[in-house]
Design goal:
With 293 residues, the protein is mainly α. It contains 15 helices and two strands. The chain folds into two domains: 3-100, DNA polymerase, domain 1; 116-292, hpI Integrase, Chain A (Orthogonal Bundle), CATH 1.10.443. α1 packs across α4.
């Protein structure tokens, strides 16, 4: 078994959300590519040493990547080492962010809120390619969903959400980060009703139960197809799919503040809506709602 195969196996064993696993695998492949370029012959995770990891991080830094990206890369490698049983080595001081010279990055968000004009322009193009993907994009916009939550919204889920609109909150269960269900406040009732109606009509016409279908019918392939089409038709970079959550946050904050909520309470409620818990209102403000600063 090659070093890359070993690292990928341990990386998958470590678990985590789909996006986290995808990122970890990408780091493992890039790490092994670096080894091939440098003609480093190490073939097993058990033989990796501090100097090699320091060289890899230094190479990433030389490529001009952000400090946050370097931190995420180092963290992914530590997770793989930990999964491989090298727990003590993974926690070695020389592999800490401080020792690697990559500590102290800001956690402020790097995305921007998608504007209504940008959304309509992108939807027109995506609808021609895949109306199911377009419907999932609209769900993200209307409810501030993560992309996986929108992709996993099947026929039964959409019907349940339609029934829940009258209560003022919908219950998001499938695709949530860490498998933690949450409630999302309905901030635009009529628009959400139309979005759900259109999505259900699409499913009936297409004769299927989910909005996004990938190449081999798996959830992973649906996830890749969704992101591929979004990037291809304009939702990329600063306004990637996460920018739909940013846009929802701005509209939700405006609604809550208009209802005479205090800024602190509005932040806390939005944080719960997004799935971050009521104790992370300040984080949500600095990440999703920077315009208020």
């Amino acid at each position: 078994m090659s070093l890359q195969e070993e690292m990928l196996r341990y990386g998958r064993q470590a678990g985590g959300a789909m996006r986290t696993r995808e990122h970890r695998e990408r780091i493992c492949k890039d790490f092994c590519r670096f080894f091939r370029q440098e003609n480093i012959q190490t073939r097993h995770v058990r033989d990796l040493n501090i100097k090699q990891i320091e060289m890899y991080i230094a190479q990433l830094d030389a490529r001009g990547l952000t400090k946050r990206t370097l931190q995420n890369s180092a963290s992914a490698l530590r997770v793989v080492l930990d999964s491989a049983g090298r727990v003590k080595f993974a926690k070695h001081h020389d592999l800490s962010n401080e020792a690697l010279g990559i500590a102290g990055a800001s956690r402020k968000g790097t995305h921007e809120a998608v504007t209504p004009e940008q959304l309509q322009e992108v939807l027109q193009r995506i609808t021609k390619a895949d109306a199911g993907v377009a419907a999932a994009v609209q769900l993200q916009w209307m409810l501030g969903l993560r992309c996986l939550e929108a992709i996993r919204a099947d026929r039964d889920t959409l019907k349940r959400w339609m029934r829940e609109i009258s209560s003022g909150r919908i219950h998001v269960i499938l695709g949530t980060k860490g498998g933690k269900p949450r409630y999302v406040t309905v901030i635009e009732r009529e628009e959400l009703c139309r979005t759900l109606t259109d999505a259900l009509e699409f499913l009936r016409g297409a004769g299927r139960d989910v909005l996004v279908v990938g190449k081999d019918g798996t959830l992973e392939s649906a996830y890749y197809r969704y992101h591929y089409l979004l990037r291809k038709h304009g939702l990329r970079g600063a306004i990637a799919s996460h920018g739909l959550r940013y846009a929802w946050t701005h509209r939700a904050m405006a609604k809550y503040l208009h209802e005479d909520m205090t800024l602190r309470d509005a932040r806390a409620l939005v944080s719960q809506d997004l799935g971050h818990g009521d104790g992370r209102g300040r984080y949500v403000a600095s990440t999703y709602y920077r315009k208020e600063e």
